[in-house]
């Protein structure tokens, strides 16, 4: 197995995506998580670009250990000095220098001749080399640079001491076969080309970033530059989780490995998505909401019998909770039974048949059936509520300048008692969560809230997905309502109900 180095540029190139900028403290938190994920190199920002970015790179260099820190700079003394100072205290560091090399960039952006650009690159690599040993060099827009000039500039920087040559497909233009060939020819044709390491940096404009990165490593690249969730300029960079999982899942064919801790993938993806306020498409490979959801009855049935029937990766290995399969009109009896069991309920075959019949009638008229509706059907059948707690009443007073106030009445279905709780906070959701914390018999961490709009009109039909953690186990509740806040409250209670049911079930098993 050949070990591929993972260079993470979420905090530099990823942050260049529109609307994704981060505060320095958020960068530090993400960098800590990236180290936990096991990336080899972190590029935490562009120190010369702003005082905030300088501070973030400096703090990360000082505090994040076990990973190499990369200072990013144009081939300008001021940039290099800033990158050197910002990364001064890193355990291990490198500098990453870049300059455009394609004719279109030279003519319209740099307004420099090829000779001037080579001279700049040479001088600045030699300058940086006095301070830092590991120098990575990127000829920007490499895939639209003619071979002759590309070889010339790469040769020049290797002569001056560059140790890593990164070939960026800056505008996502390359095709896999072409990109692979580029690595092979640069490696074989450039003087000194066998003395350096090669790195691939792919953008996803044609959806080929993962394929191109794989082609590069099949042709000698030992490092790939990636971002979490594929975030980055325009359509983004090569997605870390997609590339890593392609390497992992198809190691039989590829023969590569990485140092990534797979079980940290999901948490890292969530952290970045939340911090950057960047939603993940439902059908995004690996971390998208639908990546491990199965709606069709045939798929659900196969999956419940043997996961490998319709899944090539194990979501739990990636740290993804085996959360709820979306239940809808295509769902089978097996999946419905599974869902009911998540609430700690066991039904006889007859009860299950009846429930399934009613479920199918309900599902025929709507896009999917929520847990609340399923539990409603089960409760009707049993002639009493089957979930531990039912929401009886919710009121939230909201305004634009004072604390929000929530009051909730909840019935404990075991004892039949109803109790009311009040909570205040800066936000309506937090006020509701304060109420739930008082009402529930266990402590929980509110992990995540995702909201989806189910309608495009003023009815504002919303779907809320709430995740909570209880004793290291994640529970997820999904509910819908035409009132957004109510959808969140119901989803949070649904997650709590699953946790309580799980706790009661294990307590009963222990007693036996
Ligand atoms: O896409 C690109 O060319 C880059 C380089 C500066 C590495 O991000
Ligand atoms: Zn880039």
UniProtKB/TrEMBL annotation:
Keywords: Acyltransferase, Amino-acid biosynthesis, Branched-chain amino acid biosynthesis, Leucine biosynthesis, Manganese, Metal-binding, Transferase. The keyword Plastid does not apply. Pathway: Amino-acid biosynthesis; L-leucine biosynthesis; L-leucine from 3-methyl-2-oxobutanoate: step 1/4. One of its GO terms (molecular function) is 2-isopropylmalate synthase activity. Its EC number is 2.3.3.13. The lineage of its organism: Bacteria, Bacillati, Bacillota, Bacilli, Bacillales. This is 2-isopropylmalate synthase. The keyword Transmembrane helix does not apply. Residues 4-266 form the Pyruvate carboxyltransferase domain. It comes from the Bacteria. Belongs to the alpha-IPM synthase/homocitrate synthase family. LeuA type 1 subfamily.
């Amino acid at each position: 197995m050949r070990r591929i180095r993972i260079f993470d540029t979420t905090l530099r190139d990823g942050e260049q995506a529109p609307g994704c900028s981060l505060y320095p403290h958020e960068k530090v938190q993400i960098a800590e998580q990236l180290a936990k994920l096991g990336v080899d190199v972190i590029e935490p920002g562009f120190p010369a670009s702003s005082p905030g970015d300088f501070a973030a790179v400096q703090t990360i260099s000082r505090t994040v250990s076990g990973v190499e820190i990369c200072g990013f700079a144009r081939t300008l003394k001021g940039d290099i000095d800033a990158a050197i100072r910002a990364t001064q205290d890193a355990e291990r560091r490198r500098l990453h220098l870049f300059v455009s090399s394609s004719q279109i960039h030279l003519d319209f952006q740099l307004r420099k001749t090829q000779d001037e650009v080579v001279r700049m690159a040479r001088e600045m690599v030699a300058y940086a080399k006095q301070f830092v040993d590991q120098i990575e060099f990127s000829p920007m827009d490499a895939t639209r640079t003619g071979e002759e000039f590309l070889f010339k500039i790469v040769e020049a920087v290797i002569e001056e001491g560059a140790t890593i040559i990164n070939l960026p497909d800056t505008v996502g233009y390359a095709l896999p076969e072409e990109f692979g060939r580029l690595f092979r020819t640069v490696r074989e044709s450039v003087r000194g080309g066998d003395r350096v390491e090669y790195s691939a940096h792919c953008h996803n404009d044609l959806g080929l970033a993962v394929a191109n990165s794989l082609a590069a490593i099949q042709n000698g690249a030992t490092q790939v530059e990636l971002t979490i969730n594929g975030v980055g300029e325009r359509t983004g960079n090569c997605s870390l989780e997609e590339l890593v999982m392609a390497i992992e899942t198809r190691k039989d064919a590829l023969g590569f490995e990485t140092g990534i801790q797979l079980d940290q993938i999901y948490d890292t993806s969530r952290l970045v998505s939340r911090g950057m306020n960047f939603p993940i498409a439902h059908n995004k490979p690996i971390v998208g909401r639908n990546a491990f959801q199965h709606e069709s009855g045939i798929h659900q049935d196969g999956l419940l019998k043997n996961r490998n029937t319709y899944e090539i990766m194990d979501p739990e290995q990636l740290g993804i909770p085996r959360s709820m399969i979306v239940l809808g009109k295509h769902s089978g009896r097996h999946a419905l039974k599974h869902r009911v069991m998540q609430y700690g309920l066991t039904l006889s075959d007859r009860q299950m048949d009846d429930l399934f019949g009613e479920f199918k009638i309900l599902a025929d008229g709507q896009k999917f059936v929520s847990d609340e509706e399923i539990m409603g059907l089960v409760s009707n059948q049993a002639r009493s509520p089957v979930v531990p707690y039912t929401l009886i009443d919710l009121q939230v007073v909201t305004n634009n300048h004072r604390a929000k106030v929530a009051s909730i009445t909840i019935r404990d279905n075991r004892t039949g008692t109803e109790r009311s709780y009040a909570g205040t906070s800066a936000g309506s959701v937090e006020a509701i969560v304060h109420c739930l914390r008082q009402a529930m018999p266990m402590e929980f961490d509110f992990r995540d809230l995702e909201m989806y709009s189910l309608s495009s009109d003023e009815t504002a039909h919303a779907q809320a997905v709430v995740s909570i953690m209880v004793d290291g186990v994640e529970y997820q509740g999904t509910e819908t309502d035409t009132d957004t806040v109510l959808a969140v409250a119901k989803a949070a209670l649904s997650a709590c109900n699953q946790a309580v049911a799980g706790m009661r079930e294990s307590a009963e098993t222990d007693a036996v």
